[in-house]
Specification:
alpha+beta; 60s Ribosomal Protein L30, Chain: A; five-stranded mixed β-sheet; two-stranded antiparallel sheet; 7 strands; globular; binds the ligand Nc1ccn([C@@H]2O[C@H](COP(=O)(O)O)[C@@H](O)[C@H]2O)c(=O)n1; binds 2C-methyl-D-erythritol 2,4-cyclodiphosphate
Length: 160
């Protein structure tokens, strides 16, 4: 079978003194996401979805958070590395659909820039990438603005 789907999820805590980076876009906000890398939850979810689609495990297996090489890493670099791992096995991404769950900030104004980054890193057209924002209706830790969550689904294909 030369067509696969993959699913990815990530969540990072919001803290003061960190940049908020989502989809490779730095967003002006009083808090940012905490992590070993730049903590870009959206790109981590997409990376996991890609790896999952071709049974290559997960982001932590390929880019461990115990490895100093990834301290403060740009998650776009990790995403492109995952795309390269898929390419080695003949797979390429077709489309991505993702949801960011963030009580704040409003993400819709930043979606086009995020889409452009993800499309460039995956080597696909911008109309093959969709990024949605949702609040958590003020419920739970997401609703209290303690964290931002990302969910992603990808389709990949292999020639032949
Ligand atoms: N962080 C967010 C949250 C939501 N949006 C936009 O608002 C719409 C309504 O969100 P609800 O959670 O109230 O259903 C949503 O469809 C998005 O267009 C956003 O941009 N950023
Ligand atoms: C990206 C990595 C590696 O720097 O670290 P974090 O930024 O902490 O992100 P996470 O989504 O917890 O898992 C993957 C890690 O291996």
């Amino acid at each position: 079978m030369n067509i696969r789907v993959g699913q990815g999820y990530d969540v990072h805590k919001l803290v003061e003194g960190r940049k908020l980076i989502l989809g490779g876009v730095e967003i002006d906000h009083p808090t940012g996401l905490l992590g070993h890398s730049d903590a870009d939850a959206l790109l981590h979810a997409i990376t996991d979805a890609l790896l999952g689609a071709v049974a290559l495990g997960d982001i932590g297996r390929h880019f461990p958070d115990t490895d100093p090489r990834y301290a403060g890493a740009d998650s776009r670099v990790l995403l492109r590395a995952a795309v390269a791992l898929l390419a080695e096995k003949g797979w390429r991404p077709v489309n991505v659909d993702a949801t960011l769950i963030a009580q704040k900030p409003k993400l819709a104004p930043h979606a086009p820039a995020m889409v452009a980054n993800v499309a460039a890193d995956l080597g696909i057209a911008t109309d093959c990438v969709n990024i949605k924002g949702k609040t958590n209706e003020k419920l739970g830790y997401l609703g209290r603005e303690e964290a931002i969550e990302a969910q992603a689904i990808v389709l990949v294909v292999r020639a032949g």
